[in-house]
Please model this.
Amino acid sequence: MPFRKFINWLTSLFGSKKSFSLGLYGNVNAGKSTLANRISKDWTGEEMSQVSEIPHETREVIKKERVSLQVDGVSITMNLLDMPGIATKVDYRDFVKRGMKAADAQKRAKEATKGIIEAIKWLEHVDAALLVMDACEDPYTQVNITILGNLEARKIPVIIVANKIDKKNAKPDRIKNAFPQHRLVEVSALKGTHVDKLYKAIAECAK
Amino acid sequence: MGIELQFISAEALRDKTPPQKVEFILEEIKKSKDRILVIEGSLSNVEERELIAKTMQLVSKKFPGIEVASLGEQSSDFKAQLIKLLGGKPAGLTVVGPSTLVKQIKRDPNKLSLLTGK
Model:
């Protein structure tokens, strides 16, 4: 939307000067790209990532620069980083089972491993992070623990996002109970439920 | 062939740097597709991160990766160094196995359950 872009441009010139990198981390298929698209669409009018049911759709860090949020009179300009999902294994046969040809599946697996390494490297460079978890899945995974541990060690602010709360089997309380010491926001990135609460949390993180 | 459980004492890894420790773990895992390591002590933040990154570099058709879980408090690198300097042993334990063998590790703060299969 040209008008929104114009407002964002004006804000970037005269608004408050908060600018930081916000990384979206999490397990594969937690809904990171759907959330990145939601945030990007809400504040720039454009989506930023491709979304797919097949795991490892995001295989490189996708950046959307100068995304300006205005929350409660505070303006924050941030670089949004949609990270590849982190995993401890990438088996090309999982892609074959979903209908991909073996050669394509192997190529996807190779790219996915590189993406995971890139996402891990970025852990040292983000200013804040959203750790996106699928509220229907067990939150107590090694990937979530490793990401949280590394962010905590660097004192990087993190907001846990309990995603997919629109699904019937979603249990966001499990996430709350597993990581009680962290700020948590329950959302449905797909439906846009409670994203306003997430924007408030991001704004507070950036202060 | 059955599953081999290899128990590794904290002493065996005591003088290793994080990259050396990760290399050791992955070498042991790659020696046998039927081997699960049970390591005394939990991994530090850096070691966990290194382990995932290094595993990704090794992924191939035959080696799709690992399943790993630590039990007990995750020690910071500073705390791990301090314990090492004072001659103590790290708390907790770590279980690592090839993902072709270990299908899932379920965890809660005080319990790990391994689901194996081929």
Summary: Chain A touches chain B through 28 residues (CB under 8 Å).
